[in-house]
TrEMBL record, chain A:
UniProt protein name: ER lumen protein-retaining receptor
GO cellular component: endoplasmic reticulum membrane
Domain of life: Eukaryota
Annotated PROSITE patterns: ER_LUMEN_RECEPTOR_1 (PS00951), ER_LUMEN_RECEPTOR_2 (PS00952)
Recorded topology in the membrane: Multi-pass membrane protein
InterPro entries for this protein: ER_ret_rcpt
Compartments, record wording: Endoplasmic reticulum membrane
Presence of keyword DNA-binding: no
A Pfam family the protein falls into: ER_lumen_recept
Amino acid sequence: MNIFRLAGDMTHLASVLVLLLKIHTIKSCAGVSLKTQELYALVFATRYLDIFTHFISIYNTLMKLIFLGSSFSIVWYMRRHKIVRRSYDKEQDTFRHLFLILPCFLLALVINERFTFKEVMWTFSLYLEAVAILPQLVLLQRTRNIDNLTGQYVFLLGGYRALYILNWIYRYFTEQHFVHWITWISGLVQTLLYADFFYYYFHSWKNNEKLQLPA
Amino acid sequence: TEPSAFKDEL
């Protein structure tokens, strides 16, 4: 494992911890998109189908368990916890899951490396992860006051994706690998979706202003 | 070689 990959995973872990911290400690999920969280739960559930049958490393299994556990517990908090769920902006979080899930699934059926159940589900999870942040970005744009933790959560998620791209560049030059078009292109699309957010994030940080995305 | 990409990633 190279340094970019490790830094990427740690950033991803940090993003999840920031979100859980907000929800668990402040008992608020204001500004957090349940749609995005449900999509992530689906992403991990379909990607880690082989978690108990294909062992890679303790690190790998542990991280998979953390991402599965955290994504499902965030969804549970937002839907079921009697205090947390009251702070959910249901009226603002209107993005339709199916508009993302269905095209990703159809695309995975057509463009995959091998037409097997596990491989199609794995490819589907890559496509879906690429666009899963969209409901969250739409919600951020509608929310006038983005609190610090929500802003940091999205920033860390975007950072994780950017570090994964560096990781692939590194792997391309150091390992004997195929050109992994599916992983690369979906990863690139995913990272580009954050470009706009990053711009405004750095802008507000530089000017010491509250983060606000233009309508 | 495993044809499927980067299965060791998260």
